[in-house]
């Protein structure tokens, strides 16, 4: 678990697009925050700055007491789940789950235990020897979730993780993500353009528009004051 402090953070891309404008968000330990808003409002840019996949033009991002502005993604104790799953196609499900831990020189027995636990939680044990191409979209997204949870990160960052799934599976996976996050107590920052998804998942919503915060509050607070 961790708290995330986004303090006066801005992003100006090379070429001059001002994608994120002086944003402040305080995310508490174990909180589930959803960034929502129309395409191009800066959601993904903000998430990627927290992840370390994009440089921060102005302001600071802190995870607990660590200023992460200059830290490499791998040093930030976070795990990201992407829309396109970002699985390694030539590796089995097991190796996809184990990869991040192997890179961090985790002992083999510990890797096996963590992969087994994640596979059990996500009900993907039958597929551990398969390659991603032999899985359905929902199964692939479970593997992507598994890759995030084996790391036992302080925070999960989700970038539209369900957008490639059909409507029925989106609803199912939404519930699974929220149950897992509650069970693990891991702080979450989740990006979506889908308002219903945002309302269903969030402890608090951050509604962005043109790089600025338009509203911030619980789903009920935001819904009452549209
Ligand atoms: P969202 O995730 O809400 O759709 P983005 O963060 O992707 O929004 O984009 C915010 C703004 O920044 C948009 O105007 C987009 O065109 C611009 N943008 C995104 N990525 C880049 C980039 N790599 N270079 C220049 N402009 C970008
Ligand atoms: P993992 O296999 O769990 O993703 P890595 O060591 O490969 O672990 O990744 C380290 C960091 O790099 C992650 O915390 C994440 O922020 C980022 N990352 C992971 N996968 C990708 C990807 N496909 N593209 C860009 N960044 C990624």
From TrEMBL:
<dbReference type="GO" id="GO:0016887">
    <property type="term" value="F:ATP hydrolysis activity"/>
</dbReference>
<dbReference type="GO" id="GO:0001407">
    <property type="term" value="P:glycerophosphodiester transmembrane transport"/>
</dbReference>
<dbReference type="GO" id="GO:0005524">
    <property type="term" value="F:ATP binding"/>
</dbReference>
<keyword id="KW-0762">Sugar transport</keyword>
<keyword id="KW-0472">Membrane</keyword>
<dbReference type="GO" id="GO:0140359">
    <property type="term" value="F:ABC-type transporter activity"/>
</dbReference>
<keyword id="KW-0997">Cell inner membrane</keyword>
<keyword id="KW-0067">ATP-binding</keyword>
<keyword id="KW-1003">Cell membrane</keyword>
<dbReference type="GO" id="GO:0055052">
    <property type="term" value="C:ATP-binding cassette (ABC) transporter complex, substrate-binding subunit-containing"/>
</dbReference>
<keyword id="KW-1278">Translocase</keyword>
<keyword id="KW-0813">Transport</keyword>
<dbReference type="GO" id="GO:0015794">
    <property type="term" value="P:glycerol-3-phosphate transmembrane transport"/>
</dbReference>
<keyword id="KW-0547">Nucleotide-binding</keyword>
<feature type="domain" description="ABC transporter">
    <location>
        <begin position="4"/>
        <end position="226"/>
    </location>
</feature>
<comment type="similarity">
    <text>Belongs to the ABC transporter superfamily.</text>
</comment>
<dbReference type="GO" id="GO:0008643">
    <property type="term" value="P:carbohydrate transport"/>
</dbReference>
<protein>
    <submittedName>
        <fullName>Carbohydrate ABC transporter ATP-binding protein (CUT1 family)</fullName>
    </submittedName>
</protein>
């Amino acid at each position: 678990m961790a708290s995330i402090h986004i303090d006066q953070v801005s992003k100006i891309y090379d070429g001059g697009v001002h994608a994120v404008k002086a944003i402040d968000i305080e995310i508490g330990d174990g909180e589930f925050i959803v960034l929502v808003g129309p395409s191009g409002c800066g959601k993904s840019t903000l998430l990627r700055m927290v992840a370390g996949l994009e440089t921060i033009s102005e302001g600071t991002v802190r995870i607990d007491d660590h200023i992460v502005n200059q830290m490499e993604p791998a040093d930030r104790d976070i795990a990201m789940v992407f829309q396109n799953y970002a699985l390694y196609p030539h590796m089995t499900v097991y190796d996809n789950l184990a990869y991040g831990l192997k890179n961090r020189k985790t002992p083999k027995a510990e890797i096996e235990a963590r992969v087994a636990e994640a596979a059990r939680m996500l009900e993907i044990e039958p597929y551990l020897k398969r390659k991603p191409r032999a899985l359905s979209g929902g199964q692939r997204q479970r593997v992507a979730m598994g890759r995030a949870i084996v790391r036992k990160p302080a925070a999960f960052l989700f970038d539209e993780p369900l957008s490639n799934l059909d409507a029925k599976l989106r609803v199912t996976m939404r519930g699974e993500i929220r149950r897992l996050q509650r069970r693990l107590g891991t702080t979450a920052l989740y990006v979506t353009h889908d308002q219903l998804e945002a309302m269903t998942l969030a402890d608090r919503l951050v509604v962005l528009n043109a790089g600025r915060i338009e509203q911030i509050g619980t789903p009920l607070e935001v819904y009452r004051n549209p």
